[in-house]
Amino acid sequence: MTLTLRRSRLAGKRVLVTGAARGLGFELATVLAARGARLSLVGLEPDLLQERARALGPGHAWFEADVTDQAALGAAVRGTIAALGGLDAVVPNAGIANAGTLAGGPVDAHVRTMDVNVNGAIRTVSACLPHLIESRGYVLFIASVGSFSMFPGLGTYCASKAAVEHLANALRLELAHTGVRVGSAHPAFLDTDLVRDSDADSRSLSVARRRLRGPLSQTYSPRQCAEALADGIAKRKRRVYVPRSLAMMQILRPLVLSSVGDAVLKRQLRMAEYIPALEEEVATLGRAFGASSVESSVESAAPRGH
To answer: Would you kindly state where each structural domain of the chain is located, as residue ranges?
Structure first.
């Protein structure tokens, strides 16, 4: 696809992105703005959001909102409509990941991950839907390779992304008659704060991840992913894979999640060593979210366990 065509498909499109202050969210906003889209950046860090919006140039907006707060999201969407004149696409990108097992706790961290990743996506899209129906727009859910695979130690995160994928599958059918199109994106591990914090906090998780085979053993550029997502938005794609080879894993999903897949993971990750080491690291760390995550600043100091 030529640069001119890539730009023309997104020129003037009004796109709301949550979790836009950093990481994949801001990379995507940067790529979309370069292709002529107008952005509404939504997130939890107002100073950084303001800085990011200015960096994109004139014609963009930002709003502070927690995606688990419906009133704040509603205000952000109303502000977006006032600033941009409408809405053509939404990317519910905001997401977090707590490291550790359910047995190792704390349970509140697992619940918070589900709340942000799943309920946050539901709340975001719900707030945007009337405007998307009016414009016959597009929703791109940010799922993961974890939607159709499993990584012990990140079980709640994978569960949340599986839920997001199926939410996209259902919404695609529910909205078909309105002209709204729905897609889901499935990136592998990206070089973002989330993955870097995970590697820094847990040597055992980092080592285990690198024992995997194929694309799951590698870390990919957020810009590479953002370009693929922007293409997906421009073409209103049903699914976006980063890298594209992950499409094969989706096809092999029944095998990946079978007893055969379990056996392969057990052997590759050396579970009897990996899980106890991970639980000890998380307990010693004293927090369940990465140092760069906003969640770390508000995380409860309650003792670990159930």
So the answer is: 3-191+220-247
